[in-house]
Every structure is written in structure tokens, then in C-alpha cells.
TrEMBL record:
Its main location: cytoplasm. Pfam families: CetZ_C, Tubulin. One of its GO terms (biological process) is microtubule-based process. Keywords: Cell shape, Cytoplasm, GTP-binding, Nucleotide-binding. It comes from Natrialba asiatica (strain ATCC 700177 / DSM 12278 / JCM 9576 / FERM P-10747 / NBRC 102637 / 172P1). GO terms for molecular function: GTP binding; GTPase activity. GTP binds at residues 37-41, 137-139, 169, 196, 214. SUPFAM superfamilies: Tubulin nucleotide-binding domain-like. It is found in: Cytoplasm. One of its GO terms (cellular component) is cell division site. The lineage of its organism: Archaea, Methanobacteriati, Methanobacteriota, Stenosarchaea group, Halobacteria. This is Tubulin-like protein CetZ. InterPro entries: CetZ (IPR032907), CetZ_C (IPR048737), FtsZ/CetZ (IPR045061), Tubulin/FtsZ-like_C (IPR037103), Tubulin/FtsZ_GTPase_sf (IPR036525), Tubulin_CS (IPR017975), Tubulin_FtsZ_GTPase (IPR003008).
Amino acid sequence: MADEHSTARALENSTDHGTGERPRETTMKLALIGFGQAGGKIVDEFLAYDSAIDNSFVEAAIAVNSATTDLRGLDHVPQENRVLIGQARVKGHGVGADNELGAAVTEADIDEIQGAIDRVPVHEIDAFLIVAGMGGGTGSGGAPVLARHLKRIHTEPVYGLGILPGTDEGGIYTLNAARSFKTLVDEVDNLLVFDNDAWRSAGESVGSGYDRINREIVERFGLLFAAGEVGQNDHVAESVVDSSEIINTLESGVSTIGYASETVESANDGLLSSFRSDTEFDEGTATNRMTSLVRKATLGRLTLPCDAASADRGLVVATGSPEHLNRKGVERGRQWLEDETGSMEIRGGDYPLPGRDDVGAIVLLSGVTAVPRIDQLQQVAIEAQETTETVRANAQEDFATLVDTGGELDALF
């Protein structure tokens, strides 16, 4: 059903309806749901970003939390779309990093969340995106519950954007992430991941670090979801990346995004005008530049570091100054990624951004499996399970010994 939905929208957007003009956009339309403190802040940042680029990939935004103060701290999510859950149990004070409690209060108050979702024009969206920090209690516990609920009711894809905590944030947060990661992967159609551990700068304060990281998250994922813009001020993409391209890439599993950009000189720069008389040279330069950027985006700092060769599917999007984008550059970059991953399911397109003094490449790798951070989380989960079983066994043994000792004492008296 999800593919039929996206195909229908693509057909609608490709029709000129008798006007003889190309439609302005086929941007992916998302209903964002921020779960927990981190999720709410990131959705708030997404709204600000969407407004700043004069786009409309955010069709609706909802924030769900068990802590009143976190909801009050948001700037852009509409007041009526801020949902407080767990009032009967935690009185608006949060679940205290207890993700089992987070899951329980979500189950209990799912109708409260559904009330906000009922106000979303679902017929106008391409997908739901649940954003949550995997280390806390409310988001890591509640996001899988909500994903399961949405998939039971709606035909649109349900994606997750999970934020992994840094290893220096504390054992309980790593353990929460280890416990909830697999659960969320199983419940969503695809889990896009951002690993704080790979993006934390040395000596950076926690507050400023989170603010910068949130901007990094929003820029990378925001550029991807906004890439369906067909034309801006008469600048038309040569190969449009519409919602169906993204949906087909995000078929299942875990995804990561890479991004690389480079400042370019304006075509109106008199110092370079003499070099631009040779069109073939300009095209070759643009092609080589884009291929290089695709390599940097893939082999550089991904939102979730992994071996790119383990990806099942991929998408390359060239962005930036229209005069420096060309079809050959996108195709060469796509072919390079196809060779690097060994996958035949690598898509490509461009997203012109007039007025920019740079060009960039977004690389989406989906279905990745060779991910050291996930292996580490799985090991943490296994060790935690073994420790729990050992503690439980010791407790039962101590209790049995205590009972036996009590019987012997009774016999003495």
C-alpha cells in the first residue's frame, strides 16, 4: 500500500493539469513525531529548518513527552500538538530514564497520542517519522510502542530516527539504547540513525554539544527530505528525487547518511570568466567535483559509521548552486557508489539550491549491516542479560539458604 500511495502522488505531481507548466515540487511530506526530550527538541529544530528553507516537507509535527517542562521548552511545535503522557503515574515529572516505564505509560495513553495524530492530514503525507533519543526513558521505551500502533492503523510507511547516546553519557543510557534498538528496528519500516558518539567534539560542553549535534541532524536529514523540490525560480532539477525514490531506498533495516560540500566560485566572478569559455572543461570540472564529493560523503563521517560495502541500497543527491550541477556528475557519483557497495539498487538525482555558493552530495545508505556501534550495543545487551540472570540466580540461592537456615533455627527452639 505504501508504494501505491507514493506512486499515486508521483503521478499527480508529474501532471501539468492542462497548464503546460511543470509542478513546483514533489517534496516528501512527513508527519514528524518527537518522542521524549531529545525527540521533541529535534522536531522543533526541523520545523525551524523547514521554515528557513521555505520548503514544506514537514506536513505536521507532534511532540510527546512524560515531562511537562520538556514540552514547555519547545518553540515551534504548536501547543495543541504537545501531548503529555503518564500523568496518572509520574505526574508530569518524567520516567527517570526507565524505558520500561516509558513503554508502559505510552501503552496506557496511546489514545491521547492518537488524538493528536487524528488532526494530521494523513492523506497528504508520504510517511510518519518518529524521532527519539535511544538512551532516555520516554523516547526509547515509547517510540517502538507508537510505531507498532501506527503500522496497525495506517498504510503509510513508519520510519524512525534514533539518536544513540555517547558512551560517556552513562551506563544506563547505553543499556537503554541496547535494549530498545532492536525493538525499534523490528517495529519501523526503516531506522535512520545518528550516533552522538561519532559527533561529539572534545572539550565541548554538554549543552552546546547537543545544540550543534541537533543542527547537524536536521541539516543532513532535512536536505534529504527536502530534495524533491522540482524547481525554484526557474531552476529545474535535471533528475528529480521525489518521495518514491526515498521510500524505495528506505525499504527496511538500518540507514545512515553522509554529506560533503565544497565552496565554488560564482559564474559571474570576472577573475574566472576566461576559464569558463571552454564548456567541456567546465563540465569535466563539475563532474569530477561531484564524484569526489560523493566519495567524501560516503567514506567520511556518516551519521552512523559503518562499512559502506554492507549497504543493500543507496541514494545520491547532488545539491547546491544550479550552474555547478550536471547530470553526468550525478551519474558518475551514482556509478561509483554502485561499485563501492556492490548493489544494483543505487538511485541518484539533484536538488538545485539557487543563491548558494557551494555544491554538496548527500549519500543515503540503507540496509547497512557492518556497523561496529550496533555490535557494541548488542554486546552490552547480552552482558546485561547475563548479569541480570546471574543476580537473579544468586538472589534465589540466597533466599533458599535463608529459608533453610530459618528451618534449622526453628528446630533448635
